[in-house]
């Protein structure tokens, strides 16, 4: 018997985890004494209509414990005078009631069986039927797809939008956005410190949105890919090598974008020195933002939080504040 440990005690009573297979069993299954003849079993099957599963016939010994299983094909292929114990499979695949539901589905696929009996202390509690296993696998597939997107199973329990209470749904998202709001206010106040420089070189003000957007876009790319790689690779991901590779990619992207900005400013505004200031600032901003976006996502992940929730708004405001600060400071320093 294949087992897993997901039982726990609660209020002095033995309870099962929500993912335990006991919650998926069908109890109305045909079970007969192993000493019965196939003819007597057939007569009882024809006379009783309550069974919800007819893939297998289950047999028990004199102690009432599961002793074998008989498929419907085997039942029809053998003589009616045969005793069930002589034609049954005496080593049926079974699981304990605390076995994980997905594990049961995989056991069924591995052994090529349509239903899996759930047994405790030798007694048959019920059966996980094929339709139940299809439902389990469908749910597992949905979770895996969301997992690849960076939404982990632990959060599915909280973020089921059809079940989660409204106040919890709000509180899971609002704190991160409030952090972003505070960051925006700080960024606005920081820009105000450079009012004189912006008035003197009005073209610098034109490129504030461009600097912020490009930094945010590159940072979002890094975050999305990092979350995906964390989800798929897990512990196989080597952070030092990963950070070096992403920094190298950011360096190449930064050079290309900065050169394009330089030529654009020179062509349309005919301000070569200002073009140098903006392009150098753009490059520095992209490099620093690339690092901060990866670093913030990693910190949230290390703290045991889902980076899909926090890295978006939190890393974005860090990126915006950093890009504005670098841009303004670089402009003042170079000018």
Key structural traits:
335 residues; Tetracycline Repressor, domain 2; three-stranded mixed sheet; rod-shaped; disordered N terminus
What is the CATH H-level superfamily of the largest domain?
SLC41 divalent cation transporters, integral membrane domain
Architecture of the largest domain, CATH level 2? Orthogonal Bundle
* Radius of gyration, taken over Cα atoms and rounded to an integer in Å: 32 Å
Count of beta strands = 7
Would you list the SSEs in sequence order as H and E?
EEEHEEHHHEEHHHHHHHHH
Structural class: mainly alpha
Number of helices: 13
Strand content: 5-15%
CATH first level of the largest domain: which class?
A: Mainly Alpha
Kindly describe this structure.
It is a single chain. With 335 residues, the protein is mainly α. It folds into two domains: 7-148, Roll (CBS-domain), CATH 3.10.580.10; 162-334, Orthogonal Bundle (Tetracycline Repressor, domain 2), CATH 1.10.357.20. The protein has 13 helices and seven strands. It has helices at 38-47, 72-77, 84-87, 101-111, 130-148, 153-156, 166-192, 195-200, 202-206, 208-233, 239-269, 272-302, 307-334, and strands at residues 7-10, 13-16, 31-33, 56-60, 66-71, 116-120, 123-128. The protein has a three-stranded mixed beta sheet with strand order 3-4-5. Strands 1-2 form a two-stranded antiparallel ribbon. The radius of gyration is 32 Å and the shape is rod-shaped. The model is unreliable at 1-13 and 148-159 (pLDDT under 50).
